[in-house]
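Proteins fold reproducibly. Look at a sample protein:
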Amino acid sequence: MRQIVEAAVEDAPDMMLLDDTDAAHLEASVARFEPDVVITTAVDDGDQGRAAQHRMLVDHPRLKLIVISRDGTAASLMEFRHVIVDDVSPTTVIQAIRAALRRTASRDIQGVDPWP
C-alpha cells in the first residue's frame, strides 16, 4: 500500500513528499516540516495512538491527517475543525450548532468513522 500511495502523490503535480518517517518520529517530523497533509497507517496501540493523533491535530490545527488501515481497505480523513461564528447572537449560535450536527449526521449516514 505504501508504494501505491507514494506513487500517487509523486504523480500529482501539486503535491510532493517531504519526509518518510516512522510512527515514533511522526510528531517531530510534522513540527519540522509543517505539512498540509500527513498520510499514515493505523496504529496498533489503541487509545494511545488515537490520543497522539488528536494531539497532533490540536497542535497543528490546519493539518489534515489521512489514516489508512493496515490492510489498506479503509481510510479516514481527520481534521481539527474551528469555525468562527460571526455576529454572535442566540440565532447564530443555534445555526452553528445545527450546521455542526448536520455535518456529523452526514458522516454517520455515509458510514464514515472520523476517528478510526
